[in-house]
């Protein structure tokens, strides 16, 4: 007699850090869920930790926010993606759109530098950066394909050019990484 196996879909938690518009969060959650075909749920809002802010730079340490996400990660979450609206930095870089910690399976990205008068453009940029950081948190590297979300971006023009989808190779690698949970 064969035993039926239930396939459990990985759960990605989208966790706001600081106050963000609920409509924007729900739209990003929905866009990510559709793009990845996995469950994406909203986690509870977290306060920005005081020790994350660097007064001299007037920016927030991305690494500190990833530490916070690792601390609140729930066992049922295969991946945690933090989203914030403050300017992020990493050591030796002027700014970062986001940063991932593959060892902890967490990532954070910021909307701060993605703003535009065109709401649809902001939506695409947010999805692009969310996919990019999730990919890094799952061990994916940068891509050479011009339209892949895993392509490196140093400017908003780069982000807009690469688009909000993964190339076939990176899409397969991301699904494989999430499914191996």
Q: How would you characterize the overall build of this protein?
A:
This protein has 181 residues and is an alpha/beta fold. Helix content is 35%, strand content 18%. It contains five helices and eight strands. The protein has helices at residues 22-36, 62-72, 119-137, 156-162, 168-179; strands spanning 11-17, 39-42, 53-54, 59-61, 79-84, 88-89, 98-101, 106-110. The strands form two sheets. It has a five-stranded mixed beta sheet, sandwiched between helices. Helix 1 crosses helix 3 (119-137) and helix 3 (119-137) crosses helix 4.
CATH superfamily: Collagenase (Catalytic Domain)
Instruction: Report, as a whole number of angstroms, the end-to-end distance.
Output: 27 Å
What is the name of the CATH architecture?
3-Layer(aba) Sandwich
**Large-scale geometry:** globular
Low-pLDDT windows of residues:
1-7
Average pLDDT value?
92
Largest sheet, strands/sense/barrel: 5 strands, mixed
Per DSSP E runs of 2 or more residues, the count of β-strands stands at 8
Number of helices: 5
CATH class: Alpha Beta
As a percent range, the share of helical residues equals 25-40%
Overall domain count: 1
């Amino acid at each position: 007699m064969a035993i039926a196996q239930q396939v459990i879909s990985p759960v990605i938690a989208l966790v706001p850090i600081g106050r963000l518009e609920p409509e924007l969060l729900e739209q990003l959650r929905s866009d990510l869920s559709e793009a990845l075909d996995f469950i994406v749920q909203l986690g509870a809002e977290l306060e920005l930790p005081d020790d994350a802010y660097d007064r001299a730079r007037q920016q927030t340490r991305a690494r500190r926010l990833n530490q916070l996400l690792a601390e609140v990660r729930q066992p049922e979450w295969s991946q945690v993606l933090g989203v914030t609206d403050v300017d992020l930095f990493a050591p030796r870089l002027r700014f970062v759109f986001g940063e991932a910690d593959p060892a902890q399976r967490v990532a954070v990205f910021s909307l701060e530098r993605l703003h535009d008068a065109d709401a649809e453009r902001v939506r695409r940029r947010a999805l692009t950066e969310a996919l990019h950081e999730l990919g890094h948190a799952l061990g994916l590297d940068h891509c050479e394909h011009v339209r892949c979300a895993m392509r490196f971006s140093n400017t908003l023009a780069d982000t807009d050019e690469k688009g909000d989808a993964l190339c076939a190779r990176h899409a397969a690698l991301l699904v494989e990484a999430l499914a191996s949970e």
